[in-house]
Amino acid sequence: MDKQSFDILEKKIDQLLIAFKQLKEKNQGLQQKNLELETMINEKDNQLITLKSELEKYQNAQLEIVDFKNKQDRVKNKVETLLEKLKEFEALE
Q: What are the start-end ranges of the E strands in the chain?
């Protein structure tokens, strides 16, 4: 090989080294970004778990309110019925 061939080979090797360093830096940046995104995903997963738990609590509370309202309506109807019977009884006297 002559000097010109070595110079071309050296230039190509230098270009490959520069490209390799750039790719290595880019890879490190992407790994860091990936780590940040994984952390964000974990945080969002935890938030989702918390929100689902809160939703379940609210749904249970809503069911309790409906149940209480139904009981309240039954008690009100029973009291009204008893008051009507009391009026009927008082009218008999």
A: none
